[in-house]
Input
Amino acid sequence: MAIIGKIRSYSGLLVIVIGVALAAFVLGDLFKNSGTRKMPPLAEINGEEITNAEFRQKVEEVKERIKQQNRTNELTSEQSYQAMQAAWESMVMDQLMMEEYKELGLAVKHNRKRKPSISSEELMYLLTSENPHPFIRREPAFQDQQTGQFNPALVQQFISMLDQQEQETLELWNNLEKQIKKDQLRSKYYTLISKGYYLPDKMAEMFYREQGDKAKAAVVGMLYRAIPDTSITLTDEDYQKYYDEHKKQYETKEPSANITYIKYDVKPSRKDYLKIQKQAQEYYQELENAPSEDIPTLVSTIQMNNYDSTWKKEGVLPARIDTVLFNAEPGEMVSMYQEDGAFHMARLMEIEYRPDSMRASHILVRYGQDQQSGEMIRSREAAKEKADSLYEVVQNNPEQFGNLASTVSDDPKAAQSEGDVEWFADGTMLPEFNEGVINHEVGEIFQTETRAGFHIVRVTGKKEPVKKIRVAQLEIPIEPTTDTYDSVWAEASQFIATYRSAEEFEQAVKEQNLEPREQTIRPMQGEIPGVGSAREIARWAFNEKTKENTVAENVFEGEDTYVAVLLKEKTESGIPSLNDVKDRIKTLVIREVKAKVLKQQMQKQLSGNSGLAVIARNMNASVDTIPNLSMASVNIPKFGPEPKVVGTILNSPKGEIKGPIQGTMGVYLFKVLEFTKAPETNNYARIRQQKQSSFKQQVTGRNGMGMVYSALKDISDIEDNRIRYY
Output
């Protein structure tokens, strides 16, 4: 009570103190928030912003397209990264191209957002004509399920039921239409540029001469390697001169960072090996002793539903299994062996003599929901009743089989083929269909049910039976355990915790005989050799808080490896300074100094009015006679690629000693001995065709990203902030 009374006596002061504390808390938080910088947009292209939400949506569209094309539900990390890069290039291209389309008035019409598009009539032609757009042709949904070939009837059927499609399917279709519209506009744009190419007669003649004119020359060459690098002392003036003349060559479009990294690979320890070996031996005993009927379940349990029940002919299985089991009886085992980082074992299940390929025709009666429209085709009972009726008809009147297949089969290809599925390999058709053909003779008709529906099948051909076996195989990977991963992570973490500065890091690498690797990375780097995904390392390296000569505080995780990283330096986009490229240009600067020395030596020899043979002897070189020099092939035998030297020879007078000429591989003196001119002609059609084709390829490039797109990017203002988000 005394304490409470004491507090009450200071209640007024207490209220003031609490009020001040609350105000400080609120104001502090307010000032803290006001100091937080707003995240920039993901990108800005010529003043147009791209938000992260827009980009993320585009990435998802690309991912879905990749999944469909690869017929998979999951993408690898590499595929996901590729999807992100493809989405970025697509959005940049869209923005740059749209500006061009609008300026040229290229589009037939515009939508409400004033984005160029193509007419609905043109779009329908690209979707449904005999020669559809390639994007439609390669869509899995429009490919025959049995042959894998494009089927235009499926496109027509899909479009006719478009209003009945699920929302997800409609979104995919709309995205496909967008891609086709964009590609068609881009094709028109590139065609306009390509058709604008013109080659005047004089230029055509020049190209003709470059290919056909030839020269024979006597050459004295001194290679740079004749002078040891150690004999050259470089000055600041040497570096500066080379840098001033070549700095534009080192201009970069985006920032880069140079890192040194140490890999700590996670490999199975001896303890891991013995543990897995013991487990594999137990699996071997189970595989050997289990009843035959239990083997599929056993193998599927151990290998995650990976029991292979297909029949194998001789030479298909791994050699060690093939050799033993093709001379064994059912139930016999292949002894456990180690190969390619795993323990292997196998048991012979069955032996049969089966044809390697067969041919059949069928009438398909489907039931359930249509995969594309979602509509009910017919019930299973109705399908069974129809199939039984058709089966009875063709049993009594086999010659009607082809006509019925063409008119009533639910296989879209049947109308053109009378139900013929052509030759197929054993095991490639649905199991019930495949085994039915195996078990019936050529000419027989049978009925079966698969997941596709009911089939009335006529066997039309079989190859001679060969011995085949069914084998149960187990593969037990020898992989590191969790304890091993933890141990390697701890080792890598200890290293970077101990050696925090760049000097300590590099000294420790030398003292411990580690193997450092160096890599130049970009902000959106996908992978690093031997590491895998580089996204976390790139995000750290290009963070504005990460300074040069900094050791990362945390270990980065790669593919079965941990990585300790030192950031050596960062380079901004644009032309780097001399200091930034000094190490990179050292070899080239040495070459320039050597060229200067060799040219002086040759010039001195020329002043004595000596012939090439004397000059060569004085310089401890030789005179090489080179025939058939032309601009079509710029190599000089013995010396290597020398375009500048060859061009000079072809444009020099006959019989005079010329040089010294500085080339790529050395310095040269030469004398033209004779010229051979290309035959006179006024027909340059072939030259024009070659140049036109080459120009068109350069314009479009791969996936439309040729020299035109590159030129548009070069003259555009593109701010890429993806590194802040991804």
Observations:
- The chain has five domains: 45-195, 214-251+580-676, 256-266+481-574, 270-354, 357-462.
- Residues 239 and 579 are 10 Å apart (CA to CA).
- The chain is about 45% helix and 20% strand.
